[in-house]
Design a protein that fits this description.
- This protein has helices spanning about 5-20, 25-30, 50-55, 140-145, 180, 230-235; strands spanning about 30-35, 40-45, 75-80, 90-100, 105-110, 115-120, 130, 155-160, 170-175, 185-190, 200-205, 210.
- It is α+β, with helices and mostly antiparallel strands.
- It has two domains: about 1-65, Alpha-Beta Plaits (2-Layer Sandwich), CATH 3.30.70; about 75-210, Superoxide dismutase, copper/zinc binding domain (Immunoglobulin-like, Sandwich), CATH 2.60.40.
- Helix 1 (about 5-20) runs antiparallel to helix 3.
Length: about 240
């Protein structure tokens, strides 16, 4: 396929994928532009980042999310099981982008997980030395109960349903700021408390800052000397989404 034809197909697929999400077409994908020489596609809108990456991959090409949102407004959390009985520990990914004052959207995806309903919570600490068991209580739960009237804790993100395929995803928004969550952990589990390190269906990760749009232009990882595409293949082999 000629480069120009591939570019047109990719841009068309990206727009279509955005319109296929739960977001109305006019609000999903606003604009799509591309730089063929740099192999970069820029998308403006509020469709789930994972759906945009999937749309590009559907054209037969690989894709890496190089940045989302403004500088200092994005975060990511890699979800892993700490069970010693599992070979590949990575089981999910949460992308977070702050889109306005006290408004953050979350794009959560799980893969290779037992079917069922999973609870998603942000915890008080980022200590995952013992898996989810060492992360502390639900973030903001104590303060929320003390208010009159009592309100929902900031750390309660809701649930994610995983089907028989082992895949699950949810796209939602929360009235919180990115900076409040950096360094805390996320726990995804069929339990609400009493987590066990060896539970293969309890996943945990630490929330870390990620690059905003145009903040990440590296093509070679300084820590390993490998290209971003080589790193991508290795992470996919480990279960990374």
């Amino acid at each position: 396929m000629a480069a120009h034809d591939w570019l047109q197909e990719t841009m068309k697929s990206t727009r279509t994928q955005g319109e296929s999400t739960n977001t109305p077409p006019s609000q999903g994908i606003h604009t799509v532009s591309a730089d063929l020489k740099s192999q970069l596609i820029s998308v403006t809108g509020n469709a789930a980042p994972s759906s945009i990456v999937s749309a590009i991959e559907s054209t037969g090409r690989d894709a890496i999310l190089r940045g989302s949102g403004k500088a200092e407004s994005a975060a990511v959390c890699i979800l892993e099981t700490h069970s010693s009985a599992v070979t590949e520990h990575v089981r999910g990914l949460i992308r977070m982008v702050q889109v306005g004052p006290r408004m953050t959207i979350l794009d959560m995806t799980l893969r290779g997980v037992s079917p069922g309903l999973y609870n998603v919570t942000v915890r008080e600490t980022g200590n995952i030395s013992e898996g989810a068991a060492s992360t502390g209580g639900v973030w903001d739960a104590v303060a929320a109960k003390q208010e009159t009237p009592a309100r929902a804790a900031k750390g309660v993100f809701g649930t994610i349903e995983v089907g028989k395929s082992g895949l699950g995803s949810v796209f939602l928004d929360k009235p919180i700021d990115i900076w409040e969550m950096i360094g805390r952990s996320v726990v995804v589990s069929r339990k609400t408390e009493g987590f066990e390190k060896e539970d293969a269906d309890t996943f945990v990760g630490v929330i870390a800052r990620s690059a905003g749009v145009w903040d990440n232009d590296k093509t070679v990882c300084s820590c390993s000397g490998k290209t971003v595409w080589e790193e991508r293949k290795e992470q996919q082999a480990k279960g990374m989404l």
